Amino acid sequence: MKFIHAADLHLDSPFRGLQDLPASLLTQIRESTFTAATKVFDRALAEQVDFVLLAGDLFDRAEQSVAAQAYLIEQFDRLAQAKIPVILGFGNHDYLADQHLSIAYPDNVTVLGPQVTTTTLTLQDGTTVAISGFSYDQRWVDRDPLGDFPVHAATDWHLGMLHGAVATGSGDHYAPFTVAELLAKRYDYWALGHIHQRQRLNENPPVLYAGNTQGRDRTETGDRGAYLVTNQDHRLVPEFFSTAALVWTNPTLALTTPNPTLAEIGDCLTTWLSREPAMTPELVVPTLSLNGALSAAEQAQITSGDWLALFQRTQRRVMQAVKRVVVALRWDSPVGTTAAPQLDTRYWSVGADQVFTPENLQEQFGKLAQEPALADWFADPKTAVTLREEATKLLAALAGEEDDHAS
Amino acid sequence: MHLNRLTIYGFGQFHDRTFNLRPGLSVFLGPNEAGKSTLTQFISAILFGFPTKKHPTLRYEPLDGSRFGGEIAFTHGGQDYLVTRVDGPRGGKVTLHNTTSDLKLPAESLPHLLAPMDAILFQQVYAINEPRLAAVFTTSKQELVAHLRHVGAVGSDFWLDQASQLDEAANARYKPQGRNPELNRDLQEYRDLRLKLERANAAYPKYWRLLDQQRQLNQHQASLRTQLEADRQQVAIGEQRLAKWPIYQQWATLATAADPVQAGFAPEDAATLERLVNQQRVTQESLIHDQQELAAQRQAAQLTPLFQRYLETADRLAPTLAAIPETLVAKHTAEQAHAQQADLQDRAGSIEQQYAHQGQMPRAFSLATLQEVNQLRQDLTTANQKRRRLQQNLNDLNEQFRQQQPTRQQQRNPLADKQIGWLAAGLVVLIGSLFLPSAFLKLGGALVGVAVGYYGAFIVSGGTPASQQTDELEADIRDLQAQLREGTSTTTELTNRLDTIGESHGMADIPLEEWATAQGVIAEWERLTRQLESVTTDLQTAQQKVKTFQTTVTALLPELVDQPLQDQVDQLTDLQRQQQRLATRDSDLSALSERVTRDHTRLKQATTAVTTFLQTRNVADAQAFYQQYRSVQERDQRQQRRADLAHQLGKTDLAALQGVTDEATLQAAFERARQRLAATQAQLDSGNERLATLAGQIDQLTTSGTQAVLRQKLADLETRMIATTQRWLVDRLASQWIAAALAAASSDRLPQIVAKASEFYGKLTENRYTEIELTETTLRVRRHDGEWRTVSQLSRGTAEQLDFAVKLAFAIVMTQQVQMPVVIDDGFVNFDVKRRRQAYRLLDEISRETQVILMTADTAVTENVAEQQIIQLVD
Question: Nearest CA to B731 among A298, A227, A394, A374?
């Protein structure tokens, strides 16, 4: 028996955290989710697998992407022609509320219902496989669905398919479960979806997240793909295969000079980029670890993105050659004490205490809270920290200037 | 900083005025309307700019039309400056001179030179006037702190500058009400993009709809295709049947000729007939041949045509020849009868000529009539005799009488009259008899008339008596006359009866006397007539016989036409004789004749055989047989052909075609099938077209990438917006942070200000109030007796003194950073005399540290201030 376990294709979902990219890269990015998914289906056809399990979040229904639907229908057709069944359960992003789908998909596709259902396949060699799972019928599934899963059926194999997250005890909206519960079912394999970072929750029987097939923001670094699972001596052995069309990397680059300049940063980046070329095109978001603060003007150049744009322009050839594109830049610098000659540090901390209160932040943010895109960002607890850090960096830079000014 | 000189080109009511100021206290003294407030405004306007034209009352443009503006000479940081401002854009045209170094400085440097002082700060803190003092009621720490902050970070103009730069940068990024700042634009773009995406998302339901339509249409097309195949088959069948129609038609035609099956017209029958007819023909030929030979031989024997003809018709002529003697007798009889007839006709004709009346022969009397006539004639004769006798007697008597009466002419003789009467009567009878029908009667009547006349004239006159005798004579005469008249009437009656008889027998023209002879003649005529009839009959019979004979002869031997009978008979006899002669003489010919005869017989037999053959088949002749035979043959052929056609048509089509009445129906069915096919095809085509359109639409939706592009754009824009927002917020917060830090620093000076204000307030109120307390929200004062009063509990004057004290304290405390003259415009209106004096003293005291410019209408000021410090506004 041989099958593919994939999840979180997130077809046609946009990449987050990008701006001012070259058009060619944009096209590549736009197609990357499809390219990655195609690799899954290509592999299924190449390996002549017995079936394909898709553990949810094939697309984002909020995106209402025609391209995603058309693509799925087309790919399912490909598998149908090769007589490869597809068993899929929708997840929180593509939850089952669309009546079109079941009509539109070819017959080889089994869409699991909102209740836990078990589909039994009889393979060409007569092996029988039961697959249990369900589809989300809304954004959130707060209850633990494991109670609804049957025990191991009288088939040769029994696989579980689940889109969800391990229960944390509170705020669990994604079919919370525990590994123990999974193991208690004594299934031969648990195909999990939802967590984009592939991981193995249990060795034997395998309980694993396939991870998404294509990383879509800077946090989803590293190679992405799916599992080809084969029967080896009556054990199901998953083998990862890569599908990502673009790989995100977050290298940390240290600059040891006490007072770093943009030129030095540029050199450092170029050096890093010019290593051996990447196998898969990489989207690089380096974090610069600086020994000292940048000047306010240089900070401004970086924060405005102007410097990166210039760097991208000037280093385009290099980046093309090594298949790496620096798409954003972050830096850490030691936050020194801002010693203003005429102002006590005491006054600064008093001021900071007054300014960096949630109320003041909220007040400053003001009407922007009505912009959903910004409100989400603002609501992120990390944002307040970042704001203070950035303000500190800015004032440090200004204080440096004052020193220069004074001296 | 202190002001040295004010030079007014034109401002409000002033023009071309110069006021020199002292570094300490300068007092402008003038009544109301002297221009004190105008001067305050002048200082603000020249240093910080003219108010915009939106506020014309604040601009103090010169009333007399002189040049708007002026100049101020001031000392700042040990340098002397001269600032000139005249009317111009954006607050007026400024020129700035450093008169110490005699350098012209850029106009923009003026605000920097004066910083952090600006129009607002000047107006709020350093320009103290009564209405502003009145605003103390609203004064709070916040306001004060705002002032402080503004002036703020003492010595940290750098930080203030940075803060303001940060604010500027922040404002350039985002303004809550703005349009142009980066984030505002991004937000707008974001909204636009979202709208676009929503519109693009409309493709999603459309896509499903299209997909659904495509699926349904595909199903429909599939069924249509099946339908099309069926229709096509129908059309093919229709076409085939239509093509087979003529064949079917042929088949049908062959079928409809329902031939009765007739026996005896088989080919063998035809052969038989052929044989028979041949036999007949051969016989005929041999006959003809023999006849020809015979004819040839006869020709050789020089036989006349007549004889040849005779030979041919000999057997038929035989009875005719036998009738020859009879005919000859008949002919003789006819001749005799003809002569007799002519004689009889002559005789009858002469009689007719004699007696025929109007071409009509009188008829013979019957025996009774004859006897009656004879009797009547006898009677008539008797009567006539008697009458004659009577007449004789009468005549005698009349003679006697005339003798007796010789003068009868002298005397009137009645009898003479009587004679005339008789004559007249006789005449009448005579004439009347002429009108009688019969000749006899006329004759009779005439005779009677003559007789009467005679009797009257002669007999009666003869009886004329002479006397008695005469009378007797007369009587006798009269008697005789009577008797005569009686006899006459008898005669007349008899004559009439005879006339009647004559009339009825056509004898009217014949005199009675000839009647007897006439009767004999008539009988003779009648006999003749009868004889004539009989003769005529005989003649006709004979003639008929002759004629029949002749007709027969001429029919057989036309050569004998128009020949007299005797010649015919003679020739026939000759022919008989010749034949007998030939018969005996020429046996060959006879044999030939016999053969001809035999041939005749055989021919007859053959003909009979043919006839029998034909009759059994109920046909008139061979031609009819062959016609029938041919028709039978044709029928067989037709049946064969029909079977072939049926085979060609095929069972199914034949059955189908048999259900069809005519080609039009078939054509119509075919047409229908074709139309159905065309309709299906059209449906299919339109479906295909629609499918293509759908596919195109779906493809377009699928590949347009609009959604993806828009989403990625949105994501990117979101990223940018977050970055911008972050920078904006960081700037804002940094600015706030600076402000807060400065405020924190400034707050340390607050106690200093409060202490100073308390001091001033105490001086102003002659120590009625000793302490001022400034908290976050309140400002209150403590009376010398320890009681606390809030501002609202103070009298207006006292409250104004409080504000004055605070402001003055502020100005003094800040004096290190903000070297700005304090301008007081009639600020003590609500002060009483003592407190006003205290105020003047306080000002004088302060003016040692900072320049004070006081405008007042209070002449009492002169008591407290040195004269050289006073500038009289009104001369």
Answer: A394
Per residue in B207-258, pLDDT (tens digit) is: 888 888 888 888 889 998 998 898 888 888 888 888 888 888 888 777 665 5
Distance from CA of A377 to the nearest CA of B (A): 7
| Closest residue of chain A to B183, computed from CA coordinates | A368
Mean pLDDT (whole number) for B114-128: 72
Q: Report the relative pairing of strands A109-111 and A86-88 from DSSP bridges.
A: parallel
What pLDDT does A38 receive?
Answer: 93
Residue numbers of the domain that contains A188: 2-242
Distance from CA of B154 to the nearest CA of A (A): 8
- Please state the length of chain B: 875
Count of domains forming chain A? 2
pLDDT band at residue A65 using 50, 70 and 90 as cut-offs: confident
Per CB-CB distance under 8 Å, the chain A contacts of B707 are 12, 63-67
Q: Would you call B179 an interface residue with chain A, using a CB distance cutoff of 8 Å?
A: no
Interface contact flag, B723 A303, Cβ < 8 Å: yes
In B257-304, alpha helices (H): 267-300
CA A174-A177-A179 angle, to 5 degrees, is 140
Question: Tens digit of pLDDT for each residue in B366-379?
Answer: 778 888 888 888 88
Which domains, from first to last, does chain B contain?
A: 2-154+749-872 (3.40.50.300), 287-343+531-603 (no CATH), 365-504 (no CATH)
Listed residue (B820, B871, B809) closest to B845, CA to CA: B809
Please tell me what DSSP assigns to residue B868.
G
Query: Where a domain ends, among A242, A272, A301?
Result: A242
Task: Identify the domain boundary among A211, A242, A273.
Answer: A242
Instruction: Please tell me which of A226-235, B255-264, B693-702 the model is most confident about, judged by mean pLDDT.
Output: A226-235
Q: What is the CATH number of the domain that holds A100?
A: 3.60.21.10
Of A73, A160, A158, nearest to A108 by C-alpha is A73
Residue B470 tokens read as 């005469």
Per-residue pLDDT averaged across A231-245, rounded?
Answer: 91
Same structural domain for residues A343 and A258? yes
Q: What is the pTM of this model?
A: 0.54
Which residues are registered as beta bridge partners of B232? none
